[in-house]
Amino acid sequence: MAANTVTNAQPDGHNHEVGVALLHDPVQNKGTAYTREERREWGLEGLLPHAVETLDRQVERVLDHLARVKDDLDQYSYLMDLEARNETVFYKAIMSDPKRFIPILYDPTVADACEAFGNLYRRPRGMYITRHMKGRIAEVLRNWPEKDVRFVCVSTGGRILGLGDIGANGMGIPIGKLQLYTACAAVPPKGLLPVLLDIGTTNEHLRADPFYLGTREPPVPEHELDELTEEFIQAVNEVFPGICVHFEDWKGTDAIRMLDRYKDKVLCYNDDIQGTAAVALAGISAGLKQTGGKLQDQRILFLGAGSAGLGISKLIAAELQTLGLSQDEARKRIRLFDVNGLIESSRTDLTETQKLWAQDEAPSKNFVEVVDRFKPTVLIGVSTKAGAFTREVIETMSRHTARPIIFALSNPTHKAECTAEQAYTYSKGKALFAAGVQFDEFEYEGKTFRPGQANNFYIYPAIGLATYAARPRLLNDECFIVAAHATADQIGPSLQAKGMLFPSQDQIVETEITTATRIVEYMFESGLATVERPVEIRSWIESLLYNPTY
Ligand SMILES: NC(=O)C1=CN([C@@H]2O[C@H](COP(=O)(O)OP(=O)(O)OC[C@H]3O[C@@H](n4cnc5c(N)ncnc54)[C@H](O)[C@@H]3O)[C@@H](O)[C@H]2O)C=CC1
Ligand SMILES: CC(=O)C(=O)O
Ligand SMILES: [Mg+2]
């Protein structure tokens, strides 16, 4: 047995595992695709059934199996197991039909996977950095076997989708987000590291759950979180030089504070703030192409003024300034309404970032009243408040606006501010609608409406691919504005004619390569890129892509 599991030194200096160890290595394992010669060479004879199969046949088996699994969470579990057995088959299957698999690996099924994380747990994936490792984080990170890590997606679990604080159960999100770097933008999976920064959780129900896998403590106080994060940021940069830190699903105020602290110092971004902002800007731009309106003429109202709402507001205001408006004029076109009412200047509970958006106007705790008063042309839900876009809200908006643009971005499905059916019915078919999840097409008075999916997965994998290729010093807001325009520009006349606000998910890899190409061009033009500029950017990016093959 021992002789059957040792590693053999190869001419290229790398070790090649043999025997059972090889079959248990998901990156190298080819399973039934090993040829007879390979089976002899690598000590696999007798360890595999007789048949020698192609990769395509292996993928067919996966698809055939999944076609018979009814429950999405069961499909998710099967796919996670597949990835742990054979990464090549996993990505080949996912990338064969991204539209079908994005909702399984990611939003909305990943929400169920996170909620059941402790029950579903089978094997470790990614890294768990806890408060108890303070002072030793770099040492712990060195336990990760891959040395050339290019991205770390890190969450505290403090605000997972619209599910609130679910602590270490949130690990499903960094895992899923990084899987989409590969599935949607062909970023090689080798250098992707999911991390759960386990700072404790406010979730008493989970702390009492016997299957909970995180630290059973309330979260560390803010100053301790800041120290822990500072050490983490320094440690990942020391252990994995050139790494990009992707912040995901932190508690809103932590998310904003960390991005403000690190965006000009290290290569990092916050997907909920910047990625979401870009996808919203892309959707609004696409919507305006259909209505013939101009961004300068819009009145944009947000329900929710946390990391997503404030991030989108900032990027829209930046875009308006490039169109010639002053900062004040830009901000006047935007209103935010949070759990305590309209953000306006008499409020005493606002954060410094929220104060930037407070206008001198009458307070209100009544959302319909604010809709009636402000007459938004664009309504964006980032509140986690399911059903908040009531019939009254949408009817009031529709009275003032010929083609209301309505985005119900809160995730997962049961947190959306309204459904597609509600948006189209309440607006009498006038709304241009998108949600964080994909709603089905809807027939209204003989017309078929195609809701968009306004989800940051249209943006962050492209940012990832651009970053992977150009290795920028930093990522600035302009990278996200470029990404937004590149995404919107890919909705050509035929998609526009179908009322689509986002590109088709069938060709998501092509779409994100096109977006990444535009971002990389900007990175070279602005001096952010640190690698040598190639003659032809797109073909150079294409030469770097992951291709699931043996
Ligand atoms: N579609 C997408 O790509 C994305 C969607 N989101 C979703 O947006 C939602 C919010 O995310 P964050 O802004 O990061 O969270 P956050 O916790 O930072 O902010 C939530 C905001 O909603 C407000 N709020 C809560 N209950 C409310 C109520 N009943 N009425 C009005 N406002 C209320 C809060 O006061 C706060 O301002 C989440 O559900 C998340 O899943 C976030 C990022 C991307
Ligand atoms: C999509 C996403 O990033 C969120 O809902 O948090
Ligand atoms: Mg998120």
Polypeptide structure, described:
This protein is an alpha/beta fold. 45% of the residues lie in helices and 11% in strands. The protein contains 26 helices and 16 strands. The strands form four sheets. Strands 10-9-8-11-12-13-16 form a seven-stranded mixed β-sheet, sandwiched between helices. A five-stranded parallel β-sheet has the order 3-5-4-6-7, with helices on both faces. Strand 6 (244-247), helix 14 and strand 7 form a beta-alpha-beta unit. Helix 4 crosses helix 6 (87-96) and helix 5 packs across helix 8. It starts with a helix and ends in a 7-residue tail after the last helix. Bound molecules: 1,4-dihydronicotinamide adenine dinucleotide, pyruvic acid (PYR) and magnesium ion. Belongs to the malic enzymes family. Residues 273-524 form the Malic enzyme NAD-binding domain. Its cofactor is Mg(2+); Mn(2+).
